[in-house]
């Protein structure tokens, strides 16, 4: 869908549908009021009949109003609040898009610039609007023999005042890059595991390297993984016929002298739990266990499209966790790339095993900051549900930067502590540490485990087990999160 920014009077635009706001109590916004006057009170006459109260989420479609060029006018209810929150604002935009998708027009005009969103300037408000439109336009029907009918709606024009046009255009540019990244992330997540395996992800990286200049791609196979001493990473993939891959993508958009930011993604393309086999119910959703790697792909895609002036290294630890005669067993002890030894008490705590070696590998890039992203623990879903990602780390400034980015992007995270007391839960009588810390504080002890491999730099860990996909029902599928948060963090670092 094409998004265009214009600064013109709405009544002068020839379009299939013009979208305008009506507040609760049939309160006409400035645009609706101007249109009402032009049409000889046609809008207020309809409202007096009680067809629309103006509550949030309501809508009413009017046809062929006099003295304006739009074929239809869509009135959308915006509620009684003078300042909308992010959530109701998104609901208004989603509702309008839903109506538009059911109409025959190929274009529409949104005259909603007058709406005030709490804590948002023109840029922030437009970002939310544009990303909501892009999100609502996403489909995944690659494997359906009956494809969805092509939508008539191809173009949406966003109206704004002349003084804010540059700001609004920048927001649309950023939003479209983020949306493209989210779409890439969602596509990878939604692919079935018989197609999307570590080698497939490696091919995706190579394609990205050919498409965008300034991106170097290196693929490390199982032999190189083993030769580097990545015993924990290797152990996770050794039970599968699909070999593991360490994918390294290096984008040099900044000065040579500038240290890079590093994103590390967990890429378990399917997680059976290994010998510690998961229950069968819902196991199909374990194809989403590469959501961390997918979100790094999406973030990188957004950065490449925006040509951000930063240096960025993306490390994806990709493997398939399967039970077989060659699989790692509970009780196995492995030596990590750092030299620390780990007793594997549960083979279903495999994400931290691939990540710990990837975090050690990140040291060679002498990074400004390292952020790992992983669908790591069910415990994080118990703590925070499906709305908020868990956030841990060893640097308060980095934590605050990520929290702020999440707030700006409406892709929120929440901090969890890494107190020393939790570290003790990882004690093992036979190795330097165990890979699990018992039933209590599972998300935190997983973070504690990773922290032992991230002492050489500023580090943060995002647990996205609850936010990377929507589980079950008609909306089942990858969410594209936390691409908005990560991209916002990098936009802030680049001052873009």
From TrEMBL:
Q: Which GO terms describe its cellular component?
A: cytoplasm
Q: Which GO terms describe its molecular function?
A: manganese ion binding; metalloaminopeptidase activity
Where located? Cytoplasm
- Summarize where Mn(2+) 1 binds, as residue positions: 271, 348, 350
**Source organism's superkingdom?**
Bacteria
Q: Which residues bind Mn(2+) 2?
A: 266, 271, 289, 350
TM segments? Answer: none
The entry's active site is: 278, 352
Q: List, separated by semicolons, the cofactors it needs.
A: Mn(2+)
A GO BP entry is: proteolysis
Reactions the enzyme catalyzes: Release of an N-terminal amino acid, Xaa-|-Yaa-, in which Xaa is preferably Leu, but may be other amino acids including Pro although not Arg or Lys, and Yaa may be Pro. Amino acid amides and methyl esters are also readily hydrolyzed, but rates on arylamides are exceedingly low; Release of an N-terminal amino acid, preferentially leucine, but not glutamic or aspartic acids
Q: Does Metal-binding count among this protein's keywords?
A: yes
Matching entries from InterPro entries are given as: Leucine_aapep/pepB, Macro_dom-like, Peptidase_M17_C, Peptidase_M17_leu_NH2_pept, Peptidase_M17_N
CDD domains named in the record:
Peptidase_M17
Which UniProt keyword terms apply here? Aminopeptidase, Cytoplasm, Hydrolase, Manganese, Metal-binding, Protease
Keyword Metal-binding: yes or no? Answer: yes
EC number(s) stated in the UniProt entry for this protein = 3.4.11.1, 3.4.11.10
In this chain the Cytosol aminopeptidase domain maps to 346-353
How is the cofactor bound, in the record's words?
Binds 2 manganese ions per subunit.
| Pfam families xref list | Peptidase_M17, Peptidase_M17_N
Q: What is the role of this chain?
A: Presumably involved in the processing and regular turnover of intracellular proteins. Catalyzes the removal of unsubstituted N-terminal amino acids from various peptides.
Q: What does the sequence similarity comment in the record state about its family? A: Belongs to the peptidase M17 family.
Record-linked HAMAP family: Cytosol_peptidase_M17
Protein name as annotated? Probable cytosol aminopeptidase
> Organism source for this protein?
Pseudomonas lundensis
Gene name, Swiss-Prot/TrEMBL:
pepA
